């Protein structure tokens, strides 16, 4: 059983790495697509900016808003991530603000829900976090990334 699980995990990781390699190869072959992806990522940091649509099981009131049974509910985590009522300097990239903070990404704090929250939150959260941390750590450890030519940081926006 343990072997079977380890094999499955290896295969899954292989799929992830293969996919990442193919994506990067194709992006290098198509610089205009790479630019488009980079621009889009810069604008939409959350992987799923609107989460997956859900439906209300029953009538309820959230924060003074009445939500009728069977309404389709779409959570805009992109907007929540930029809400000045939830974040200081909401438009700025300050990862240090999480040092010593009790806000996590696992759906326990509604200011930050990159994996959703509740019963239908992302079941791949642990794999997602591990792969992203590993990839980013490797890429940043091995290379000094910089803008090409004379491009300025604000040229992205
Ligand atoms: C950094 C990586 C990932 C992010 C940011 C992410 C984000 C999300 C989000 C926002 C949802 C919707 C949750 C909601 O609507 O409440 C979701 C659902 C889901 N994710 Fe992920 N995900 C990631 C990686 C993965 C991985 C690696 C897997 C599988 C191996 C996975 C499988 C799923 C599945 C099956 C659902 C649907 C769950 C349901 O509807 O009950 N995700 N994910």
TrEMBL record:
Its main location: membrane. Gene3D superfamilies: Cytochrome P450. GO terms for molecular function: heme binding; iron ion binding; monooxygenase activity; oxidoreductase activity, acting on paired donors, with incorporation or reduction of molecular oxygen. GO terms for cellular component: membrane. It is found in: Membrane. The keyword tRNA processing does not apply. Its cofactor is heme. It comes from the Eukaryota. Heme binds at residue 122. Keywords: Heme, Iron, Membrane, Metal-binding, Monooxygenase, Oxidoreductase. Belongs to the cytochrome P450 family. This is Cytochrome P450 CYP736A12. It comes from Prunus yedoensis var. nudiflora.
């Amino acid at each position: 059983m343990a072997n079977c699980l380890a094999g499955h995990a290896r295969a899954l990781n292989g799929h992830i790495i293969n996919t990442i390699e193919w994506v990067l190869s194709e992006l290098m072959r198509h610089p205009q697509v790479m630019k488009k992806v980079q621009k889009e990522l810069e604008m939409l940091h959350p992987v799923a900016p609107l989460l997956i649509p859900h439906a209300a099981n029953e009538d309820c009131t959230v924060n003074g808003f009445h939500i009728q049974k069977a309404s389709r509910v779409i959570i805009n985590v992109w907007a929540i991530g930029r809400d000045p009522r939830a974040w200081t300097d909401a438009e700025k990239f300050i990862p240090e603000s999480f040092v010593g903070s009790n806000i996590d990404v696992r759906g326990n704090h509604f200011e930050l829900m990159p994996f959703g929250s509740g019963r239908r939150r992302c079941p791949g959260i642990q794999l997602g976090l591990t792969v992203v941390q590993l990839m980013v750590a490797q890429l940043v450890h091995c290379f000094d990334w910089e803008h090409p030519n004379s491009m300025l940081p604000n040229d992205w926006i």
